[in-house]
Specification:
Elements (H helix, E strand, L loop, with lengths): L1 E5 L3 H12 L3 E5 L2 H10 L1 E5 L4 E4 L6 E2 L10 E4 L6 H9 L7 E5 L5 H8 L4 E6 L4 E5 L2 E4 L5 E4 L8 H6 L4 E4 L3 H11 L1 H8 L3 H5 L2 H21 L14 H5 L3 H7 L1 H4 L8 H8 L9 H10 L5 H14 L8 H15 L2
Parallel strand pairs: 1-2, 1-6, 2-5, 3-10, 6-7, 7-8, 11-12
Antiparallel strand pairs: 3-4, 8-11, 9-10
Helix pairs in contact: 3-4, 7-9, 7-13, 7-15, 9-14, 9-16, 14-15, 15-16
Length: about 350
Amino acid sequence: MTIAVYGAGGIGCYVGGRLAATGADVVFVGRPRLAAELAEYGLHLTDYLGANLAVPAEQVRYETTPAAAAEAELVLVTVKSAGTANAADELAAVLKPGATVVSFQNGIRNGEVLQDRLPNHTVLTGMVPFNVLNRGGGAFHQGTEGALDVQQHTALQPFEDAFERAGLPLKQHAEILPVQWAKLLLNLNNPVNALSGLPLRQELGQRDYRRCLAAAQSETLDLLKAAGITPAQLTALPAHRMPTVLRLPDFIFRRLAARMHAVDPLARSSMWEDLQAGRRTEVDYLNGEVVRLAESLGRTAPVNAKLTALIHAAESGQSASISGAELLRTLRSAQAGSGR
């Protein structure tokens, strides 16, 4: 059975690459730049646990037109959130009857967007909890832990073994929204990391940057409580305790949050990669989603709104290198200005 990875960038190449390297029939659909890169180098997949897999260039099927997804029984959508609606319209024109579509994207609403435009197909919401670094030359590295989370459905049964063989087992959930919000809480670090200019491990090793993340998470947790949403527990630490641990002094944090701080030295956020490449980021679908939640409740989210604005400024060419102390002052000023 063919699996198509639609919008195959970093996450798509890594997930699809591991599937292909372990025997699955995978076709990638994405940009000509990556098609040319993989035609030259093939795929090289590594992770923080020592996995080392490869798919030779001649065995990589990387296409650049939607028609390549027409043969697929399962489609993994990994486009950036801003491209979801367009991807759905392209898929609607080519998908075979009975094909299953899974959104493996950041944010909260992508599955809904796909379902609205693909009403005759099974559309499931999924989530990739780990970080993937595009190292160039067809090499993609998983720098943090996690399995693949997905909405529970019988349509996934024919593919479960393939994901298991790939070392990416599908963790199915009856309720996916709490999982999405739990992932989004972790992703609130993306703009902090991008603005720091540092690898994740170095950034999380500095208390001021952690305080910035804690402020964004605390603000979000208050809003989720008001909305009646309880985030799932994706890490060893429950979501509501993360801000407290993040605020601890460095030496205590290293002791009490060893697993939380056990990040591969190579790992960086995808938002940092996007800024470096001059691409539009997904900040509107991460921190911006918190701002929208606040507005729906008649409240404000000054910390997440300020982080969103800072990333938009960086997208426009302003310097994205901010010290932890400076960023913390900026966020606290935004809180004070909002009266919170």
